[in-house]
Amino acid sequence: NIQTVSSKYMKITKNGKVYYLDHTKYDVSSIMMLLDKIKLNKLEKEFKDHEDGLEKLTFINIMLNELGKDYEDRINLVYGIYKLFLEVDFNGDGTMQWEEFTQFIIDTVM
Question: What does the alpha-carbon distance between residue 3 and residue 33 come to, in Å, rounded to a whole number?
Fold first, then answer.
């Protein structure tokens, strides 16, 4: 069950517990800042293991495993990673290739 509480927060009820999603907490640039060289190398390996690219849910799970946060913060992180995927998937095919990801990084820095 998801309800909009304000322009910043969404209320999520799961298994009787209430969580608040702050959809402004992790924007694309803050997600990118969490990726150091070691995490990027692991991510590159995942892309190489998936020659056809990473689907949205696979990408989110890989990123969550690398960035790991407590459960309540993971809700915010998932939303941020989802937004990142949408921005990086330039061709809109629902998968992300390593080339798209690295081009996004280059474009973002420059």
Answer: 29
